[in-house]
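DEPOSITED CHAIN:
***
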Amino acid sequence: MKTILLVPTGEGVGLTSACLGLIYALECQGVKAGFLKPFSQDEKASAEDRTTALYRHLFKNDTVEPLSFASLTDQLNQDQTDEVLEEAVRLQREIAKKHDIIIVEGLVPSSRDAFATELNADLAKALDAKVIIVGTADVNNPVKSADKIDNQLRSLGGLSSNRLAGVLFMRTLGLPEESAQIPVTLDSNLRLVDETTQFIQALQKTHAHFGTTQLPVIGLVPFSNILSVPRMSDIAQQIQAEWVNLGDAQLRRVLHSSLIASNIEHEMHKFVAGELIISASDRIDVLLASSLASSNGIPLAGLVLTEHYAPNPLVLDFCQVAIKQGLPILHTGLSTFETAQQLSNLSNEIPVDDTERAEQVTRFVSSHVDPEWMTALLNGSYQPRLSPSAFRHELIQKSVAAKKRVVLPEGDEPRTIEAAAICQSRGIAQCILLAKPEAVVEVAKARGIELPHDLEIIDPDLIRDQYVEKMVELRKGKLNALQATEQLQDTVVLGTMMLALDQVDGLVSGAVHTTANTVRPAFQLIKTAPDYSLVSSVFFMLLPDEVYVYGDCAINPDPDAEQLAEIAIQSADSAKAFGIDPRIAMISYSTGTSGAGADVEKVAKATEIAKQRRPDLLIDGPLQYDAASVESVGRSKAPDSKVAGRANVFIFPDLNTGNTTYKAVQRAANVVSVGPMLQGLNKPVNDLSRGALVDDIVFTIALTAIQADQQTA
């Protein structure tokens, strides 16, 4: 069992971010990484350990609780260091049962915890761990950066120690601003190869061992203000303010803060997306201006009203539109100056419940870890599997390589615009928004979305007429020109025509449309692929340990045996296309021959048909869900099956069973799902949930691009 201990040079180096980023990088390599924080340094007995909690939230994986700070210091004061280390070993062994590698967070040295440096060295020996030293850096001051690392290096036994795995520089100052891009998944293209090489050369002028095999530099992570942005709910806790209106306090982030002291006419430029406005409670003009800005679509971070007197309720009545739109408003008894001073001293630590920020930091750090170092680390007896992180990583990488054009009929929908901007800037796909260009620009401006210069925005009114004749021809007498003109008013139909005529490679819709609105034009204009008689769907279920494929959970209400066999074959091919080696279970309420009835017989017949058509596939059924997914149950109920207990593709007998199971697993296990992905069409069309997040849309666009690439291969 490989164990990696991260040891910080001191406080404020970003140790939590380093641990989580390294775990994510390992997950993207298909390695099951566990996390261990053996000792807490929080004096509050009831406090939840922050890194442990974030690990659980991010990776949907459990770990052990650290030894409390009170217990740790009590045992150390009684000269029971050996007992402390034995407890750490016990915790490590408990985690080792379920993981390929363990990332351990070491203690942070401080004036209070003078024991941390020595205990970290003892911990590395007790756990037989390789050590990564984590420190901050300034490319303009390499000597100071190196000295801090060397001080920690000496405490670990110096260069002669065989435990050194490398050094990770966090929060690096002096790098270009554009280096602080936030990726949607691990993206090694963001790694600053030239800057890292130059920094190593500067270090070596006074510290020759940096960047050698003795002490490799495994990452140079830039400092990023973007990753330090708190939510309004965090602001409230920091300044101990009271809510006038909670609104979207959990969602809105403070990019900048502005103190409004002069006449409002001189301050209007401060009312922009992400701005926190600070003003005295009696500044009615500021309150009204903030409300007006919010009503006009400018998503301010929020408003903090200061001084002892409360805001006037009559004035608040005039602000109801903004309040209903979610504008967070706080009131504090502090003076305006005191409030601004407190806000300038906000903690950079990620709150336990801020999963979104933690995910961004994790992806950011992982993208700056040296992949060659990772490869060397992973040389060993690991058993890679397609983890959710690896699935998402491969999804993005394959879509970038595919270079496909994807049309988005809901072109003026805010989430769709943001997702298109992300996909365009990261090269995931060439996105085409069907919308009035001025409408897209207005939404982007209000929400602070930067539109890439090469993002295509097409006004539907300017192109509809050119598709009328072709649509009549495709429908073969089922509608006339007048009817075609009317149907083409629907941008989903228009986008589908663009796809039918090979002007784009795929289509994604559904953020505001129903599944039927998205799928019906595809059935009519795209039709099924030559080898298939029906269209079906799959969801990729991102369980903590691996990715499952569920089909069909969205399209076919009650397929017969022939159709069910075809759905199984389609789903297996989809799994393969996305890096999953399919082991297909045909799900029923009965396993093998233990039950009888038309439903069981349908599944049994479908299994035989699928085996005959595709003898290359590993497929079995009927299997109950637990027999298919739980190894011990599978051994008991179907001991001769090669699929039972190991299935990763689950084919449900009907839509009622499939959709219910998918939603139950998604909600009960808090599982992220990607899909539904439609399969069996001549060209890829995919539907979104109307509650889809921006990241969901990004991944669906990526998935569509890969489908298009597979169909043209």
